[in-house]
Every structure is written in C-alpha cells, then in structure tokens.
Write a structure and sequence with these properties.
This protein folds into four domains: about 100 residues, no CATH class; about 80 residues, no CATH class; about 60 residues, Alpha-Beta Complex (Type Iii Antifreeze Protein Isoform Hplc 12); about 90 residues, Roll (SH3 type barrels). With about 350 residues, the chain is α+β, with helices and mostly antiparallel strands.
Length: about 350
C-alpha cells in the first residue's frame, strides 16, 4: 500500500519540480527562459510583477545565444526599468537573474519532412512519393521556438548520403546540420502495355500507368496519358518500358503546299498575310513558309492547321536583317503596318 502511494505521488512531485526549475536557476537564482533573441516585458514579469506595467511584447534586452545563459544584475534591471517607465514601488527585486536561451531536440519527423519537401520541389512530385530513412540520427539540439528547415540536394539513389539541413529562426539566424540518410522517390510514368512498333498509332489500350523509382529528370518521360494518345513512336518500345518524350512523333497539322495565315506581332500592331508551307510541320515546330504577297521565305512556328506565328528577325540569308528606313510602312487589310523586310516579307 505504501509503495503504491509513492507511485501515485511521484508524477505529481516531478511536475512540481519542473515548474520550480523554470523560475529558479542554479543556487536558487531566479531564471527566465526565452526562445527569442530578445527578452520581453512579459518574460521579466514572471520574476518581477512590476514589469506588467509595460506592454507584454516590448523588447527589453538581448538574450544570450541559443544554449547559453547570462546573469542580469539588479542595478542593470533598475536602469532598464527607469528607461521604460516602470514604477518599482515597494517591491524588492532579486540581486541576480539568470537569462537562459532555450534549446530543443530536433525531431526525426521534422528532418524527414524537410528532406522530402526539398526533393519533391526539385522533382515536381508530392512529398508522399518520397521515402526518407535517417541513419544514426540522435535528435541534435536546435534553438527553441519555430524554425524553418531547408534541406540541400539529395541524390535520390537509395544509398546512404550526407544531406545538408539548414535551420532558420524567426530572427533570420541560421545554422547547418549534416544528416546521414537514404533517400528514394517514386513517380507515376506512362508505360507500354505491350510491345509497340515504330510508327504505331497509340491508343488507350496500348499504354498504362505504373509507379517507378525516379532515376532521371521527370521532364524526359511521359507521365500523362493525354500526352501520348493519338501519337506515334519513332522507335520500338518493349512492354512495361517508360515512354521518352523525345521518341514521340507529333502529328503533322500542316503539309507542304498548305496555305495558312502568317501573323507577326509588333507591340499593339499585327501583320497578317497568307503563307504557303514549304514543308510538313507539327504544332510547335518551326518550318519555312513563302509569303504569298512578297514571295519571300520566312520562318514561322506552327500554331495549328490554319495559322503560324512569324519568328521575328529570322532571315535565310542574313543572321541579322537590316532595318528599313524609319517610318517605312506597308498597308495590309486597310492598316498601316511597320516592319522590316526579313520579318514580314
């Protein structure tokens, strides 16, 4: 019965001791713990109630560096009180006060989340697709309070590597830790559902989506089904293989001899003339057209089967076209258009 009573009283006694330790430092000296660079009036009021006369968030003095402490003598406190208009009244202030800058252990979850977020941003995937396994992690001490964590580049090889992790306080102070971890990531890719021969028109049943480890830049691979349906491949692809974007053959929307509208924009002014395609072209490709009004060759980027955007400044014979005399104009569709010969002719 006596032993069980002690078991019940022990947690209560420990909580009381923790509460006392927050107010009293070593040797019974009152202690003020802070997690910021400055000690506020509210924090001083924990030991000296007269400081409640000042606004709670008023910064009174600088705190020591994280993990360190400093003694504040009564004479210095009195000078600070006079500066901030604090009426000491009849209260007796301590001869010494200990200012302590608190630390806290950095949790493994914080570190894992920071590394995953950094790799997710670089690979343009979600943090849930990344697995981080810390090796030999012992929760290092960092400044107490809210921290912003920023992880350096992780190689995503699945092997043990050292990842730099920088913590940043609200006051923009920072420090760097070196974390040993295994980092791996998976992403969804469009793969061939069966063997695909070159020039095969790809349909819904020819592809599927699977998760796979990220080994290269995600930009090199097709990850959305809509990007590949209705297109053809330049090379043979085996079943289950990822589809490289470079292997996709975009359908030609403009054929040699087709007439489209050529557009050249110069600020608020646009020039529109008919042009004849000199070669086949897919949407987004740059091909040559013949301006049907001037007979000159111009380069334009195909937009669709009806239009193309002239590439300003491009000329077959000259790297840099010579400008016309100032004020030269050409009237097209009733509008005065200012241009250079190599752009519009």
């Amino acid at each position: 019965m006596e032993r069980s009573r002690w078991k019940l009283l022990m947690p209560v006694g420990l909580s009381i001791l923790c509460a006392i330790s927050q107010v009293l430092g070593a040797g019974g000296v009152p202690a003020i713990e802070t997690e910021h660079e400055s000690v506020t009036a509210a924090e001083l009021a924990r030991v000296m109630p007269e400081w409640r006369q000042a606004p709670p968030e008023t910064k009174i003095l600088y705190a020591p560096l994280p993990g360190l402490s400093r003694e504040l003598l009564r004479a210095e406190v009195e000078r600070l009180a006079a500066r901030h208009g604090i009426d000491r009244a009849a209260g007796e202030w301590p001869e010494r006060i200990l200012i302590v800058r608190r630390l806290r252990p950095l949790s493994d979850r914080e570190v894992e989340a920071a590394i995953a977020a950094s790799l997710a941003e670089r690979c343009r995937i979600t943090p849930e697709q990344i697995r981080v396994q810390l090796v030999g992690f012992h929760s290092p001490q960092v400044p107490a309070g809210q921290l912003r964590l920023r992880a350096g580049k992780a190689s995503n090889t699945g092997e043990v590597e050292i990842v730099p992790l920088t913590w940043i306080t609200e006051e923009k102070r920072s420090g760097t830790l070196w974390i040993r971890a295994r980092v791996s990531a998976v992403a969804s890719y469009v793969v061939a559902a069966h063997e695909l021969e070159p020039e095969t028109l790809i349909g819904e049943n020819d592809i599927t989506v699977r998760n796979s480890a990220i080994q290269a830049s995600l930009e090199d691979w097709v990850r959305d089904r809509s990007e590949v349906i209705g297109k053809r491949l330049a090379r043979r692809l085996g079943a289950g293989e990822k589809i490289p974007r470079a292997w996709l053959i975009r359908p030609k929307v403009v054929g040699r001899g087709d007439v489209v509208e050529l557009r050249l924009a110069r600020g608020l002014i646009q020039l529109r003339v008919p042009g004849e395609a000199q070669q086949d072209g897919a949407a987004g490709e740059r091909i040559m057209f013949r301006n049907l009004q001037s007979g000159r060759q111009v380069a334009a980027r195909v937009e669709d089967s009806q239009s193309a955007e002239v590439i300003a400044g491009f000329d077959l014979t000259k790297k840099f076209p010579k400008p016309t005399r100032a004020g030269a104009t050409e009237t097209t569709k009733g509008a005065a258009i200012e241009h250079t010969p190599s752009e519009a002719k």
